[in-house]
Amino acid sequence: MSEVKAYGAADSEADLKQMSIERREVKPRDVKIKITYCGVCHSDIHTVRNDWGNSMYPAVPGHEIIGEVLEVGSEVTDFKVGQTVGVGCMVDSCRECEPCKHDLEQFCEKGMVGTYNGKDKHLGGHTFGGYSEEIIVDHYYVLSVPENLDTKAVAPLLCAGITTFSPLNHWKVGKGDKVGVIGLGGLGHMGIKFAHAMGAHVVMITTSPEKAEDAKRLGADEVLISKDEDAMKKHRGSFDFLLNTVPVAHDINPYLQLLKIDSTMCMVGAIEPLPDVHGGNLIMGRKNVAGSLIGGIKETQEMLDFCGEHDVVSDIELIDINTINEAYERVVNGDVKYRFVIDMESLRNAN
Ligand SMILES: [Zn+2]
Ligand SMILES: [Zn+2]
Predict the structure, then answer these.
(1) Beta strand pairing call for 178-182 and 201-206
(2) What average pLDDT score do residues 38-58 get?
(3) Where is the signal peptide (predicted)?
(4) Which of 33, 84, 93, 264 could pair with 288 in a Cys bridge, judged by C-beta atoms 3.0 to 4.6 Å apart?
């Protein structure tokens, strides 16, 4: 085992501060990674503050990890020292159940092992994430990063990216489709970029008119203000697919009315009870409401390769780790365009 510097919270009330954590020795199938950048996801904050009631402490979050391979185990042939790699939301799964066998490890029947706050099979206790100098991960859960991309802006692709890419890919969004992206935050801004790169006609759907200009810069062809009833009426029954990234409970009925017959709205933001859905909004037009969670390892690699081909990265604000607590406040207030990424040199240089 080795000790590395990390940043984490001692309990649900505490700020994040520097601490020391243990990493396992490199096993035959492992890749040891020097972390260079780590994105800040809203889930990090939920975990640190125990919003979901299942947090283990100390909590060291971070599941949008970019780094450089320092060492590979004796059986690893798919990665080499010095290569730029990524690690997303999971570092293990059972590999035997039906979902695992079908490249859907995120739905592993035995439960995927989260990059943080998961059950550590090697050292016991729980897993520690990317707010740290180094991480050791089984090669199967390590992703290769296309060389032409700006690596710090790739970090958020590992969670925000795959969360939005996977449903657009699964429902085969492409040329000729009219796609609505609801909500413009960390997820929504990636949804616009992907849908645009896939060739769809993209409509940003938001409550905030002031977001229109930015939405167009990101690739939206149109902006629909959801509070404008006339505008909503004009778009009624016209969408082939809706990607709903709103992170909190909200009334989805007005959006269902926007869908064409047989079309789907996929939820990726709000993991909580939603207000009543009127059955008529589903029955009239044979409409679907669906959900989606990140993506499997194979699809995450496909997403990164797609980003390499289409030059898609996240819009980020790079921060030093000692400003992480302020950054959390800003994420909670929706005051970031569109993802914070921690420069991990700032942790290595800390005393
Ligand atoms: Zn995340
Ligand atoms: Zn499994």
Answers:
(1) parallel
(2) 96
(3) none
(4) 264
